[in-house]
Design brief:
Helix content is about 70%, strand content about 10%. It is mainly alpha-helical. It folds into 2 domains: about 325 residues, no CATH class; about 45 residues, no CATH class. Strand 5 and strand 6 form a beta hairpin. The protein is elongated. The two termini are about 25 Å apart.
Length: about 400
């Protein structure tokens, strides 16, 4: 089972990276502050950094995901449980990634552990320590997105008033460039200025090229800020802090998630060294290869963003995730990040309710799906010898 355990952990780390890696930089891409490739590179670099230092900042999180307290100690350290948890979590998260839905690795792992606990107890719900599950897992997962919405919306309104009070204004963009539009037949003839108009154009109309000047908002081009903050150009300050905050979210996400995944390898000894290295590498690879669908949903599907709004959301997300990691609370970076972006959308009056509804549905199904897969795999692994013997007879 050692080889199977390593494969399960790598699969889980890959799925986690594919679904989670872009969440910190979603506001950079969504607000037009960075291209997809540049945002992905920045996310990957900070994810690796967070993974490598996670053992020093959040080692207590690893103990939460070994099954201790949910199942007997001898079961918690068994390869069957660890492989089942890893494979169930990986399959659940990867399915959400394929559908383009940001979901929670924490939720998937918690669901898998709960499902296995039911199998170990013989299906007895009374044997499940719901008090521990509620205080250590469910409560933080429920409270964190709500807190993120409130903090992000409130912070954005306060910071917007502060920006206006300091004389920093938003510049309205003017887009100038060639435009091709359909024109009527007579207009086509007039635009030809005496030139010959082909019969096909005379019969069906034409398209004329013209110089177009368009006044637009963020959806047409990147919004910029005019003014200074303590003597620094406002636009440069926003861009710098925005990139820094995006990196902080990616770093914090890796600090919070890496110990949960590497905890599955603790059966072989203390967490650290090569275990963290392979988890970090698999997370980075997943983020590079398969992050596009979730990136589009997070960056552009929840609400329209400008750089200032994106910066506010990132600051709230980083604060909540890093704070949770320090005190050993396994919050979901997904929930916090989506909550922050949605809070900005609510404050700005542009939330995309349809997308948020789909994301909410994915969240509701993550935990039970992880539970069913975890329970099924654990039952299969623990009963495989008996099943094989029965088939042989």
């Amino acid at each position: 089972m050692t080889f199977a355990l390593i494969i399960a952990v790598l699969w889980l780390a890959y799925s986690n990276g594919a679904n989670d890696n872009f969440k910190g930089v979603a506001t950079l891409y969504g607000s037009g502050a960075a291209t997809f490739n540049r945002a992905r590179l920045w996310a990957t670099a900070n994810t690796i950094a967070g993974s490598l230092v996670s053992v020093m900042l959040a080692a207590s999180l690893a103990k939460q995901f070994t099954g201790n307290g949910l199942v007997p100690a001898e079961v918690a350290s068994s390869s069957a449980l660890l492989v089942s948890v890893g494979a169930a979590g990986a399959a659940t998260v990867l399915l959400a990634t394929i559908l383009g839905m940001p979901t929670s690795t924490t939720h998937a792992l918690t669901g898998a552990l709960t499902g296995i606990a039911l199998v170990v107890s013989g299906g007895s719900v009374a044997a499940i320590p719901f008090a521990k599950l509620w205080s250590s897992f469910f409560l933080p997962l429920l409270v964190s997105p709500v807190l993120a919405v409130v903090l992000a919306a409130g912070s954005y309104l306060v910071l917007r008033r502060l920006r206006i009070a300091m004389g920093v204004t938003r510049q309205t963009c003017v887009c100038v460039g060639p435009e091709r539009t359909p024109v009527p037949v007579l207009a086509s003839v007039a635009l030809s200025i005496g030139g010959h108009v082909p019969d096909s154009q005379a019969l069906h109309g034409s398209s004329a090229g013209r110089l177009s000047v368009t006044v637009g908002e963020t959806s047409e081009c990147v919004e910029r800020y005019s003014g200074t903050l303590v003597g620094i150009n406002a636009q440069a300050a926003v861009e710098t802090v925005h990139y820094a905050s995006a990196g902080a979210v990616c770093f914090a996400r890796a600090v919070n998630d890496t110990p949960k995944i590497a905890a599955l390898l603790m059966v072989g000894g203390a967490i650290g060294g090569w275990k963290l290295a392979i988890v970090a590498a698999a997370m980075a690879i997943g983020g590079v290869i398969q992050a596009r669908k979730v990136a589009e949903t997070m960056s552009k599907g929840i609400t329209a963003l400008n750089p200032g709004q994106g910066l506010t959301g990132n600051l709230v997300t980083a604060l909540l995730v890093i704070g949770a990691s320090r005190i050993g609370v396994p919050v979901s970076t997904t929930h916090v990040s989506v909550g922050s972006i949605f809070g900005i959308g609510v404050a700005g009056g542009k939330p995309q309710w349809a997308t948020v509804g789909k994301i909410g549905t994915a969240w509701l199904t993550t935990l039970p799906l992880g539970g069913v897969l975890g329970a099924g795999l654990y039952y299969l692994f623990t009963h495989a010898p008996a099943l094989t013997a029965a088939i042989g007879q």
